[in-house]
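Operator note (shift B, R.M.): manual run for ATPase-like protein requested after the automated queue skipped it. Running by hand, logging everything below so the morning shift can see what happened. Input copied straight from the record, untouched. If output looks odd, do not overwrite the archive copy; leave it for review.
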Amino acid sequence: MSISGNQMELREEDIRKHYAAAGAMLEGFDHTPRIAKPAVEGKAPERSVGIGTRRRFRSTTPGLVTRSTARPDGVHLIARIEAADDDDPLTSPLQATLQHALRRALAISLAMGEAYTDVSGLADLKRANLAGSLDAARKGEFTELLAAEALIAAHVFANAAAYLLAPHGSEAQAEVGEAEELLTDNAPLALHGALWELDQKLAQHAPDDAHLIAATAGYAEQLMEKAALRARSAPRLEGFTAADWRVEADDLTISGFEPAAKAKSTTLTMAFKKPHEVVGNHIAKYQALRLSKMLMAYDFDRRLNPFAEMGGFIFTFMGDGKPGTGKTTLIQMMAGLIHDYCQNAGYAFRYQNFGIDNIDSYQGKSGQNAKSFIQNVLDPGVIGFGTIDDIDQIAGKRGDRQSSAGQQEVTAVFMEAFAGANTVVRGNCTFGMFSNYPENVDDALRQRAGARFLVDGPQTREDYIDILTLLMGKNHEIPLGDHNLYGAQEIKQAVARSFEAHNRPQEPGLAEVFGRVQDQIGELDSLAKLGTYLKAIQQADERFTGRAIKNITDAVKVRAMDFELPDDWMENPELFLFKDYDTKSAMIGELRVPITIDMVVQEINRYADSEFRYADKSDEVAIDNMVRDFGRQEEAKRRYLEGQG
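Run finished. Output pasted below as returned.
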């Protein structure tokens, strides 16, 4: 075992020495389930008439010769895998791949367990227990360490199996259900329980080779989730979670109870847009440009972004505006910028959109789809960009009877992922939620959007000339006329004008609060006066809570980072991207600007304007619906009375 920084290596020889034990487990063992109930007979079907699935053991002990050693709950995974295709007596390439992946995953799990016993002191306690000399005062510690080793073994096995099978997946899917047989008495029993349950899942959900991979990967994900959930409250895990464990031959890094994923880029087929092709939307465009470069400051060795540590990183944002104002164009611009930056630096970039087609009628599937989306984008081995377009149609409001169960599941997953107790912002990814009707998004989920991008489209005469020229293309000879093409889209000037516009609120309801507070206490030039203004906003809108204040202060910190990383730093990675973490932090720190009172007032007004805009729209929609319902009732009553005539 070698150590490098905060990373420890599982040596190849330490893994391979467990191949024999891993192969024996796949060949066959007996297991009596404790928690899960058997759904199928444990014995795998014979592949051909007269050919058994396993050589039967015949005891040579006197008196036991005639006693059968085969049990009905025997687990024979190799036979189960090979039985997936009854028409072919030979093992298929995909079946062989699965067998090798499972053996490798088991060997990695056993090696990890062995390493844990060494660093935690469990090895000494095992020897003492075997010799009968274990101190009674340490039996509690011994039990806790065995349970910790069992959780580690189960999670590492599932983690490695899912990782190794990822390149062999297909469109085939398998709904394997929850992992139940997670036993924590000791590591061997934990692995036996996992393999027994995997055997059951394959018998139920793997009629062919493609579903073999899908069912195994699906069960591995469920087992990882169950083990990670148990690990939250389990003691004695520091020896495993304190460092990353590296398996060099597989390019696998085991980071505690986090799922590993291959750092692969997604293949993007969208039409990228250049910044000048996004007309209007000045603040949204400016923040998207800056966020694209912020993501590139992520340090893959430290697994942290200096912007996330210093403040000013946008983890989630909400883009709202009327239909046709440019939300899709903004997504195409931002994805294109990050894609180009990553290609230049040699980083893996993963873009994924969560759309309405991910809402499934199968109970629990929508939540699983949402979790998979979140995990793919959060993968610390890539630069990630996740978008949720038309989130008002995808995530249902809690308590809304018109929202499907799938939409409610998605809302719960997004709320936990974006600002839950276990949310860790590394700074390698960002999530954008977009909607034409943000007032229809659940209030708590909407407030988890740390930044607000008002996508208002072209506004000025110059904007409309620019967008007309852009969309007309070049297949004409119509003169441009007296106009500086795209001059109005100069980011710095346009953004300065846009921010200045928020020195006073835009929404009538907020403007009334702002004016009343100013009349009472004068100019907002101190923290006490700003706090008084915030309290007045809360009195006008009870949904303006502590989370709103956090989002405002985060936005102010973003303004303190009110600079663009130089283009040279993106074009020549040696200048910045390939520097070590501390150097990058120092370079960013030199560019930071001080926070001013104007910044704070503008950000309060920007955020509160958006909340008042959403609340006013939401109330108006609710009132319109009630008026429509009352009208229907009156018309129904009139027709009923006419019919009674």
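Quick read of the result: The longest helix spans residues 597-644. DSSP finds 24 helices and eleven strands in the chain.
Leaving this for review. - R.M.
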